[in-house]
Amino acid sequence: MIEEIIPHHKFSERSLSSKNVVTQLRIQLLKGYNYEVKKHEHIFDQNKPVFTLVVTVYDSNLAYIQKALASCVHQTYTNVEFIIVDNGCSGSFKEILYQTFMDHSNIKLVRFQEHLYDPSLSDPYDPIPNLWNSALYASEGDYIYFLSCDDMLSRNYCEKMERLFHENIACVSASPSIVSINDFDKVNIQRSEYYSANNKRERYTPGLLLAEAYMEGKNVLIFPGGLFSIKSGLVIENGGFDSHNDLSQLFKYAVLGDHGYDPTATLYWRHHNEQANKKQKLLGLIYYKRSIDWTLLYDIDAVNTVRFGPAYAQKFHDYFKKKYQEEAYFGLLDAFSYGGKSSGLRAIKKLLGEAKGKKQINFIFYTLLKLSFNLPIMYFKKIARKIINKIRFETFTSAPFLRQLIKQVRKNRLHLSEINNYGGIEFSYIEYATHMKFAPLSLLKLTYESYEKIFEKSNWIKAQVEANSQLLQLYDTNNHYNLFTELGRQYKAKNILEIGTASGISLYSWLKCESIQKVNTFDLLAIDNNQAWFRNPVMQETVTQYITQEKKRWEQFICDLADPQVFKSHTDIILSSDIIFIDGPHNGDFERALLANILSLRNESEILLIFDDIILSPMVEFWNNLPLPKLDISFIGHQSGTGLALLVPYSQRHAENMK
Q1: Which of 6, 74, 358, 442 has the largest count of CB atoms under 10 Å?
Q2: Is residue 141 part of a domain?
């Protein structure tokens, strides 16, 4: 039978007696919030440590929440203090939390009367860490861990973590293995293997060595926002939880002793479309300042110098300076990628609004400069205009800006480290291809108009994917199929020549363009014998049915156009093409041989060339040395690179060569 429910004090004696200035500041902030703490008359076993689990809940996904709560309730360790923080829940969410509280005497319920969440605020006034700290300061446990309400723990989590602390008195933090799961609790195998490969450490590691290895990029640690269990007293005496907890849990707490690791316990980290960080990206909210704000709050540079010496302090300082820049850059890139134009421009406004002093303004300027080449040209001009208005460079003209842009792009090459082998291409080996000369206005205009049309159709595209998620690849912004259809429309193309349609997906995208009358596709295998590029049967059926229906509009040739004799025998077809799409083996050698044949054409009219995968390592040199007017449009094309080039009429090329 459940013991009597009683009001509980919001702040434990150990919290109120803390000498830490930030802890006392946070307590004062919490006193201004409207919340209550309830508990049962429950007595914990005094002969073993109390392990505190915290879950903060708001109106989100009820099924995820119930699973998170159940994973905490059914721990094999018997001395668990479970604190549920009700962040202004309503309706069935509120009822579930209260019923769970009523069913288990070891649960405390921290109930806020209003939903507290303002992601635009900076620490320490950001309500999110204060929600965590409301549980921390009311807790009785020896160790504490907070779990996101969409994640789960293995039943043996507390038992295994407590054992790590118990067996090593110097252990101040501990962590389990990480397994990625989807909406339906199925394991994301590829992502989970990535986490496993990047969490290579011993059962115990000195926290300072772990922090240094992490800063050096070694595969010892990768984590979500909450991963470490930590000694509760240590957290209280060092200021409590911070906004940028994934970094502070390592650099603020783990460095103070040994870190324990037991992969037989598991954090099930759920990846889904409603994740808070994805919503923040859609809103254009970037947290570049948080990566450094918490270090200023605690004067970490000075603390590190005293505790660990000047060498470590300098390494830490340099790492966070770089981290600060990366957070700004990738935050902006994510804002544009996830939320489009409105989110990206909101993020830029936030960056510029927070800039103070010449150094910060210059840093933001170069961040935007570095980013600009990955963005559509219509954003690029707006960014440049905002920067100019902010810093008022009288001598700031377009030509120096573009020269500096190219310099930055060459210096900072793109590397997509988490994309693995697919279809025989090793996407890990990606470099950033650059321009050798300025792109002609016609290509810029074509790119802008094509992207604008895709942007206008974004709601329609989203609806197609929501209607059938298995067709995602046809509409995915990491691919180029929507782009081909719009390029065909904007270029008013009638005849397409493509090299390497493989399973027919690019053929499908060309045929979707109404103006195109004929597509001639050249391959080494017939489409029917090359079906490996389909991700699922639904996609295969969709593409196959459509290209079969449009059979009169296309023809396949099984031959190698890199062979000069074969190329010559098809000259008439090639010269009649408005667009030539090259998607061959991407080894550089084939493309060079094909280009030599293309340059021999005595074409009287302009032909648009489209090259796929230009930032795959074997293709970078080929693209950089391409002797034609060109434009890298990877920012709206294929994740492995898309390039446009103009094959101007032969007479014009010949005249240029004579000059």
Answers
A1: 442
A2: yes
